Amino acid sequence: MVATAAVVAVLVALYLGVTSSPGWPRVRDLFFNWEHARAVMPDVWHAFWHINVRMFLIAEPLILVLGLLVALARQARSPWLTPVRLLAVVYTDLFRGIPTILLVLMLGFGMPGLGLQGVPTGLFFWAMMALVISYGAYVAEVFRSGIESIHPSQVSSAAALGLSRAQTMRYVVVPQAVRRVLPPLLNDFVSLQKDTALVSTVALFDAVFVARDYGNYNFNWTPYVVVAAYFVVLTIPLARFTDWLGRRMAARERAGT
Description:
The protein has helices spanning 2-19, 24-31, 34-74, 82-97, 100-114, 123-148, 152-160, 165-180, 182-195, 207-218, 222-256. It is an all-alpha fold. It has a single domain (34-250), classed as MetI-like fold (Orthogonal Bundle). Helix 3 (34-74) runs antiparallel to helix 4 (82-97) and helix 6 crosses helix 8 (165-180).
């Protein structure tokens, strides 16, 4: 009861502080105008669903596959696979160091400009690939941390049973590692959903671009609030599911000890 009252008091104080400020009427008209919100909602929703959400749903499995392959490449021990291991290290170091927005700009404008035969030239494809390449490097490190968290005794036990290293990774190490890193993976995908907004920088008509186009034409920034609301409605359930999954896994581990 005390906690609820404290939260309500803070929210009321924030609301009164904002709405009583001298510039609130102007800000309300520029960012919280219902007429502009109602006018732009259909176009923003269409762009949000067909570009942002669709890109997220396509990119997510690609990132998972890429990240797992890179993590496994970094765990390779065969001397013959040394070039692959070094390439995986260079990939993770390079693309974790480049801001995602720069990758979107470079691939979105650069790759279609090359005019390569048989290579897609669409902005949607290359903007999505920029997200896949960027997030693949982060997810690879998440998978690698999960793989390295598995106790060496399990690898030794698998070897004693006659399993090859590839079989050990497939049947023993990777399944356990994936379960351990599910919460951080889901956090990455919450961020991925938000970062689909970066594709507006290459003039792809996503929700942000539509909002900017409307705002520039009508001199009103309410569409940005509408876009923010759509992202919040999508990301909050993902965030709460991530928290629930983390608590469930923690409780399961405590029960097993």
